[in-house]
Amino acid sequence: MTIPPRRPLTLRDVSEASGVSEMTVSRVLRNKGDVSAATRAKVQEAAKRLGYVPNKIAGSLASSHVNLVAVIIPSLKNMVFPEVLSGISETLEDTVLQPVVGVTDYMPEKEEKVLFEMLSWRPAGVIIAGLEHSEPSRAMLAQAGVPVVEIMDTDGEPVDSCVGISHRRAGRKMAEAILEAGYRRIGFMGTKMPLDHRARKRFEGFTRTLAKSGIEIIDQDFYSGGSALAKGREMTAEMLGRNPDLDFLYFSNDMIGAGGLLYLLEQNIDVPGQIGLAGFNGVELLDGLPRKLATMDACRHEIGVRAAQIIAARTKGIVDQDPITTLSPKLTFGDTLIRDR
Question: How far apart are CA 153 and CA 198, in angstroms?
């Protein structure tokens, strides 16, 4: 199956939407010439609403694309995304396509800026993390005229196609394993949810599954910042200070989970007999811990591979029937989640 190319937006589209001449639109978008503040705002609003992005490829190349794949991710500090990038890079090695990376720091307004700049160079495709975007970003993606693959998440409607896992299902599977092991007094620690949509969805799947068994989370704590061992130690100490009878701690990622594990071992607390623990992501860096943390692999490398394969195929006119590729993460019990109690 092939998808007919969309007609790219032009200055005329913005001109008609804003009610000013194409020359004035050009001046505003190039930030050149003397244009009133009111007219400038009108043009910028129309361009933003339409998802128009100017083409920086000059002259005879204006109707073509460069052999670059825009890869837009929230962070390079988080160990999750380098593995995704590795999968993308390895897959594109034998093609003419070259990935170029932009980082948004989980900020919608920064995502808009990065996306705008990358699309202005007319890449051959876009790989972007997440399904949640601002209206301007979503408009730009819809009007990009190139393959777009949203990665890491499949709980939602993609602009074009997506590759990832169901985070709600991941949260549900973890809750089921914890309940089956007999744990009942559960605490949760994670990042601030408004910006981390995938962590929010896991939390939703987790709490809803507990609720079906008549279990409520005893305590929860959220923080802003990177996934840090020190933060995991601190949060675990504070939560157990408030609720010393907790028997399980679920962390939204492995790094704070590792911090919690180290704190408990230092306090000579029996893990997983007295307290069980689990994280998320399956970060290999933590294999050297005194105990192997229970976790769930997020299929990071495979997500990168599949996304790059879709872009490479689409540039050749090959399109899969199903726009959504959902991978199945594996739950690892490790040494901190017992199977029977």
Answer: 7
Give the helix/strand (H/E) hosting 27.
helix 22-29
| Backbone CA torsion sign across 261, 291, 210, 158 | positive
| Closest C-alpha to 340, from 209, 181, 198, 230 | 181
Q: What is the mean pLDDT of residues 18-43?
A: 86
Q: What is the pLDDT of residue 338?
A: 83
Contacts of 94 (CB under 8 A, 6+ apart): none
pTM of the entire predicted model: 0.82
**Structure confidence by residue, pLDDT tens digits, 141-155:** 999 999 999 999 999
Residues of the chain above pLDDT 70, percent: 93
State the helix-helix crossing angle for 37-50 and 22-29, rounded to 10 degrees: 90
Q: Are 256 and 231 in contact (CB under 8 A)?
A: yes
Which one-letter amino acid corresponds to residue 214? G
Copy the structure tokens of residue 63. 């109707």
- Give the 3-state DSSP-derived string for 270-337, with helices as H, strands as E and coil as C: CCCCCCEEECCECCHHHHHCCCCCEEEECCHHHHHHHHHHHHHHHCCCCCCCCCEEECCCCEECCCCC
Determine contact, residues 130/72, Cβ cutoff 8 Å.
Answer: no
The rounded distance, in Å, linking the Cα atoms of 47 and 10 is 10
CB atoms within 10 A of CB 285: 10
How far is it, in rounded angstroms, from Cα 246 to Cα 277? 11
pLDDT value at position 6? 65
Which residue type occupies 144? A
For residue 8, pLDDT over 80 is answered with no
pLDDT at 4: 53
Q: What average pLDDT does the segment 284-302 reach?
A: 89
Beta strands in the chain (DSSP E): 68-73, 98-103, 125-129, 148-153, 161-165, 186-191, 219-223, 248-251, 276-278, 295-296, 324-326, 331-332
